[in-house]
């Protein structure tokens, strides 16, 4: 099969991604073999390719927003029937027995594994996944629009919950890519006033089209004090700006798996008045099920831009430069 792999992690300009031919994977016990139809292009894939995240699997195939058809099953896998459409997300496996798993916080499991980092992902024609961590997808979303729901959407949903926005409150979104544009739609549907702060002029215009109240630069103060804020951009130097923009008692959630260093904070300006700074680590399967149900009920409209599988490196380059409005998606195959 055709697939991408990370050779030597490094800047995209150095060519860390390699387009190769490799054997089809074989599903293990409890796993399904999936023919990939589409795969979203996520910033975490960029972190894996460029080495921002440590190598967990040599020559890994990235991609963890996978929509595909079940074409095979390993021993004991009975949840899906052949031909059924499934979604494969970032969270691939947890231990199921640690204190975090047993308390409903499986996203904090120290033995968790991740698609496209610990195991080969969806920048390929076929992949495998444990059937207990795959999702049935709402019928209202086609293969391209369903893909970004599986990470950008789910992580944005968890970040929104972690941000503790009060009913009818004011939310700031720092960065406006695949995850933020879905989070904004959920927040707007809930009656929340949304202000976007991002570097890209095109992204600001896109935010205003979606109904956000304002769109400005990430290093400027928003027009009103924020009850809550979420940082999607992997830039730690934004944290002081976002904290300074919070109203008393506000919450800032950092949604990325990787972020550059946060500068020294001034206690009075950034932290005092009972402000909260929190992070978001992956998600639970319950988060995913809740979000997919909500996405179908709200009729979310992910904005996507398709690229053929062989242009995955180019799509990641657009993402790195902030040139993608919405979410990039690789078109790998059409339904059989």
UniProtKB/TrEMBL annotation:
<dbReference type="GO" id="GO:0008270">
    <property type="term" value="F:zinc ion binding"/>
</dbReference>
<comment type="similarity">
    <text>Belongs to the zinc-containing alcohol dehydrogenase family.</text>
</comment>
<dbReference type="InterPro" id="IPR036291">
    <property type="entry name" value="NAD(P)-bd_dom_sf"/>
</dbReference>
<dbReference type="GO" id="GO:0004022">
    <property type="term" value="F:alcohol dehydrogenase (NAD+) activity"/>
</dbReference>
<dbReference type="InterPro" id="IPR013154">
    <property type="entry name" value="ADH-like_N"/>
</dbReference>
<keyword id="KW-0520">NAD</keyword>
<dbReference type="GO" id="GO:0005737">
    <property type="term" value="C:cytoplasm"/>
</dbReference>
<keyword id="KW-0479">Metal-binding</keyword>
<feature type="domain" description="Alcohol dehydrogenase-like N-terminal">
    <location>
        <begin position="28"/>
        <end position="139"/>
    </location>
</feature>
<dbReference type="InterPro" id="IPR002328">
    <property type="entry name" value="ADH_Zn_CS"/>
</dbReference>
<dbReference type="InterPro" id="IPR011032">
    <property type="entry name" value="GroES-like_sf"/>
</dbReference>
<keyword id="KW-0560">Oxidoreductase</keyword>
<dbReference type="InterPro" id="IPR014187">
    <property type="entry name" value="ADH_Zn_typ-2"/>
</dbReference>
<protein>
    <recommendedName>
        <fullName>Probable alcohol dehydrogenase AdhA</fullName>
        <ecNumber>1.1.1.1</ecNumber>
    </recommendedName>
</protein>
<keyword id="KW-0862">Zinc</keyword>
<dbReference type="Pfam" id="PF08240">
    <property type="entry name" value="ADH_N"/>
</dbReference>
